[in-house]
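Q: Predict the bound structure with adenosine-5'-diphosphate.
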Amino acid sequence: MSVTAESVWNNCLSFIKDNIQPQAFKTWFEPIKPIKLSANSLSVQVPSKFFYEWLEEHYVKLLKVSLTKELGENAKLVYIIKMENTYGNREPFTERIPSSNRSTVSAQELDVPIKSKNPELRNPFVIPGIRNIKIESQLNPNYNFDNFLEGDSNRLARSAGMAVANKPGGTSFNPLLIFGGVGLGKTHLAHAIGVEIKDKYPERTVLYISAEKFTQQYIESVKKNTRNDFIHFYQLIDILIIDDVQFLSGKSGTQDVFFHIFNHLHQNGKQVILTSDKAPVDMQDIEQRLLSRFKWGLSAELQTPDYETRVSILKNKLYRDGVEMPEDIIDYVAKNIKSNIRELEGAVISLIAQSSFNKKEITIELAQQVVEKFVKNTKREVSIDYIQKVVSDYFEMDVSTLQSKTRKRHIVQARQLAMFFAKRFTKASLASIGSQIGKRDHATVLHACKTVDNLAETDKQFRKYIEDLTKKFS
Ligand code: ADP
Ligand code: MG
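A: Predicted complex:
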């Protein structure tokens, strides 16, 4: 029987098949076509540059062993990369990749930096085992587990993230879906997992990408006819992190391609980590088959942090920034910004900036102003201190004047208004209001409330005060 390219390759294939997983064989070896055999050199055709790179990266030894068995010690393998949609039928393939050729994926096209250390494609055996492709992880090292503080609100998600980082692809948390509202740490935690994996397993390929960017790349690839390369590229990843998958809502093409990439990665024991602003049940316009995949692993929620966690996040941030801040200010900020950690950090940064630009000390008043800006849209807890501050400002006096023993009419009125609003907007008792507003007793507060009610009915100017101030509190 004569030795042909086919016969040599078929022998190689049967050896390879026995040595790798069926799925990998199907994906990476079935599409290869033997083309030419001359002396000890076999030419095979592969569908894309990534295909070649993947083979070189993962199967170079296997290829070498199998080919050496067939063709002896000097066996050579030549890859031919099929140029889809470029040369048409005139010249269906070439042995070199022209740098301008569009069917090869370059770093710019994918918008993911790829360093090719070895652009010479012809003979992978020259330097066996060398890494030809390096995918930058796009991870932010500042988002790590050390500075992702633990609390009741994130314990499950954080420990699931740790488990995944310890054994990527090797836990039942695959995919790991982290979901929760804005500013609760989804992106931070997703990076932290990636950073930890890179640290523990430097040889694994980790990629962080937002669903938005993924979508853009996909659309580009369709335009440029490099859809297959796009898919192959993503199939190279060992740990794929996609942030804000809710962005895929209604984008059926991208969902479809992601579905295939996901299946491939999952079947090959690769880890997928996703974040979303919603639980899978609440996601809209996401295909059912994709949603069901999301539910395969673990969905872990990041909830709004409790007070203790907010305080520790603030203290940690201040500590890392080398800034000291009085306890009562920290407490004030933590009490008033509840639903968003990004806002919590923003308020602190703004406070530090304000105080250093204006050379002011960080006071409760400053904190109130800053916090007010951050929680405009959320209902704020009105405190008696805050009420006194607002009323004093309105009448252009100090809080201490408002609280003083003076009987001057306009000061008495301001004090009575403060008591009236404290009764109306807080749950404090009359006695407690009195003690906080100039150390008065509960009878004084009761009297103040009645006076304000009366004046509101009889005095037009006074009614205006009440209206103006009410607006400031609601
Ligand atoms: P999301 O992606 O959910 O909108 P981010 O991950 O961007 O939220 O988090 C917002 C900010 O809050 C980031 O600066 C992040 O570092 C910080 N943050 C969130 N959770 C924590 C935490 N548990 N400990 C420390 N910082 C946190
Ligand atoms: Mg985010």
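A: The two ends are 92 Å apart (CA to CA).
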